[in-house]
Design a protein that fits this description.
two-stranded antiparallel sheet, two-stranded antiparallel ribbon, 11% strand, globular
């Protein structure tokens, strides 16, 4: 039975396997298992961010979509994120609604995808890998933040097969294209400085 709380549909299942089947049937996953976004867990993420569920994080006019804090939290939970990752996920989601980010580019036949580079003290605070093997697997923050943004775009902006995704071959970077900038290495100005911040 489905009921509404906040803005999202609530579903009930007998067990974890049932939850997974419902989520796969509804097209809410990326083909991998997800963490069930329970009310309690989603509320924990929203509390960490200090946001109400209906807080508008961004608007995506090209898709006629509004992404709320609740949607960011739901997809973050599903991706396996920790609540401490919410500031990064919210910043990434805010970027999706800017004029500089052209969402229709990710729908191209070239299978383009987003690369998230995180700068500042939060890199160390949440344990983002910014060194050896930074684009590889094995670091929860890197992989789950990238996956959280991917699920958010899939579930809230149709960036999926059967939606706007038109890539010929796809791109596995959807699962791990998030890195921290290593400010301990003196390469010159940081990325944020190069961007004028």
């Amino acid at each position: 039975m489905a009921v509404k709380k906040w803005g999202s549909e609530l579903l009930e299942a007998d067990d974890l396997a049932g939850v997974m089947e419902i989520m796969w049937e509804k097209g809410w996953t990326d083909g991998l298992p997800v963490v069930p976004p329970t009310e309690t867990r989603v509320a924990e993420f929203l509390d960490y961010a200090g946001l109400e569920p209906d807080h508008v994080v961004c608007r995506i006019p090209d898709r006629n979509r509004v992404i709320t804090a609740e949607k960011v939290a739901i997809n973050a939970v599903m991706a396996g994120c920790l609540p401490e990752y919410m500031p990064v996920l919210l910043a990434a989601a805010e970027c999706l609604g800017t004029d500089e980010f052209k969402i229709n580019h990710i729908a191209s036949v070239g299978s383009l995808w987003i690369m998230i580079v995180v700068n500042g003290p939060i890199v160390k605070e949440i344990g983002l890998n910014s060194g050896m093997y930074c684009f590889g697997s094995g670091v929860r923050a890197n992989c789950t933040i990238a996956r959280g943004v991917s699920l958010l775009l899939s579930n809230c902006a149709e960036a999926r097969i059967g939606g706007i995704q038109r890539g010929q071959f796809g791109y596995s970077g959807r699962f791990n294209n998030c890195v921290g900038e290593n400010e301990d290495v003196d390469w010159g100005p940081t990325l944020s400085e190069m961007q004028g911040y």
